[in-house]
């Protein structure tokens, strides 16, 4: 099930999203997940920096479908280990 996040403008660029993702990863590992996948838009550099700072690797560029005007999306994966 997908989740979305946002940081209010007056709190952006303070590392909150990076830290929040870092705190979520051990919880995902505890639940038996071997990886998490995160998608973002190609022009969302801030989100990409958050993902990369947490060990994300670009898996693919994909078509978001007709509902999104066939815009491209980026899919990243963060490995959590066995």
Protein architecture, described:
It is a single chain. By secondary structure, the protein is an alpha+beta fold. The protein contains 2 helices and 3 strands, in the order H-E-H-E-E. It has helices at 16-30, 45-53, and strands spanning 35-40, 57-63, 72-79. Strands 1-3-2 form a 3-stranded antiparallel beta sheet. The protein starts with 15 loop residues before the first helix and ends with a strand. 11% of the residues are buried.
Determine the mean pLDDT: 86
Please provide the count of β strands: 3
Low-pLDDT windows of residues = none
Order of helices and strands: HEHEE
Strand order of the largest sheet: 1-3-2
Helix content: 25-40%
| Count of alpha/pi helices | 2
Instruction: Give the CA-based shape.
Output: globular
Separation of the first and last Cα atoms = 21 Å
Largest sheet composition: 3 strands, antiparallel
Judged by helices, strands and strand pairing, the structural class is alpha+beta
Strand content: 25-35%
Radius of gyration: 13 Å
What are the defining features of this structure?
82 residues; alpha+beta; 3-stranded antiparallel beta sheet; 3 strands
Write the layout of secondary structure elements.
Layout: H1 16-30, E1 35-40, H2 45-53, E2 57-63, E3 72-79
Antiparallel strand pairs: 1-3, 2-3
Offer a quick outline of the entry.
The protein has 82 residues and is α+β, with helices and mostly antiparallel strands.
């Amino acid at each position: 099930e997908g989740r979305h996040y946002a940081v209010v403008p007056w709190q952006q660029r303070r590392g909150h999203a990076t830290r929040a993702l870092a705190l979520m990863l051990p919880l995902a590992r505890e639940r038996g997940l071997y990886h998490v996948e995160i998608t973002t838009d190609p022009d969302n550099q801030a989100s990409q920096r958050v993902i990369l700072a947490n060990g994300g690797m670009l898996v693919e560029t994909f078509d978001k479908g007709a509902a999104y005007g066939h815009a491209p999306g980026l899919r990243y994966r963060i490995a959590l280990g066995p």
